[in-house]
Design a protein that fits this description.
The chain is of the alpha/beta class. The chain has nine helices and eight strands. α4 packs across α5.
Length: 253
């Protein structure tokens, strides 16, 4: 990644400063800045692309929850004095995008969800009985994608480090439990802003029917499926993902 992480107070983030409108990217439970490299490179000139590093592993494990993470996002947006943001969320990041929008609809111009939790997910964070086994972690990480080659050694090493650190493992468990508690089926009809859904046809964590259910429950939403694609379309098919996202954002403006 060409962008340096900026640290201001308790916030750590990257920011492209490329445009007047803000594109806020929210990563998932095992997400890294590299997950969004394709989006950043494609939109850094036209939008101010911002990626806050969520404090999932910085808070005491018992304090980690979706409520605390949404509060963090809200405080970050206020700290940066952004008027409104286009929010893009993958996996847990999509769940946070929805909760943030429900709590602060006046701050959100649009939502883009890809492989989002919030309705149903086969939580990767709840099944690591063989934490010490690198091959087990490698197989679980590869299962996130249609093409296992997307799970680079660097990515597998990051997940392996997380699940072999007691505090990080507890943070994953508490966050996953909080996500399950925060099922949004009865609240999604409150979402009014334009919403884009981009789903992998071979997503095994939030399967295609989850994308269809989001599309059914969010009134002003558009759904695109990508074939030969798992839980992270922006990583497996960045050009097509960015095409859908670009057209969506242009349609709003």
């Amino acid at each position: 990644m060409e962008y340096q992480v900026i640290q201001e107070g308790r916030f750590n983030y990257i920011e492209s400063q490329g445009g007047k409108e803000h594109l806020l990217l929210l990563h998932g439970l095992f997400g890294a800045l590299s997950n969004f490299e394709g989006i950043i490179n494609a939109f850094k000139g036209k939008y101010n692309v911002v990626v806050p590093i969520l404090p999932i592993f910085d808070l005491p494990p018992q304090e980690v929850s979706l409520e605390e993470l949404v509060k963090y996002v809200h405080e970050f947006v206020a700290f940066k004095q952004y008027d409104k943001v286009h929010v893009v969320g993958n996996s847990l990041g999509g769940h946070l995008a929805l909760l943030y929008t429900l709590e602060h609809p006046e701050k959100v111009s649009s939502i883009t969800l890809t492989g989002s939790s919030g309705l149903f997910e086969s939580a990767i964070g709840s099944s690591f009985p063989q934490r010490e086994s690198y091959e087990f972690v490698k197989a679980k990480t590869e299962a996130t994608f249609y093409d296992p080659k997307i799970a680079t050694k660097e990515l597998v090493d990051e997940v392996f480090d997380i699940v072999n650190n007691r505090n990080k493992t507890l943070a994953v468990i508490y966050t996953a439990r909080s996500a399950i508690r925060n099922n949004l089926e009865d609240k999604l009809n409150q979402i009014q802003c334009p919403t884009l859904l981009i789903w992998g046809n071979q997503d095994t964590i939030t399967p295609p029917f989850v994308g269809e259910k989001f599309n059914q429950l969010i009134v002003n939403s558009t759904l695109h499926f990508i074939d030969k694609c798992g839980h992270a379309p922006m990583m497996e098919h960045p050009e097509l993902f960015n095409k859908y996202l670009g057209e969506f954002l242009e349609g709003i403006n």
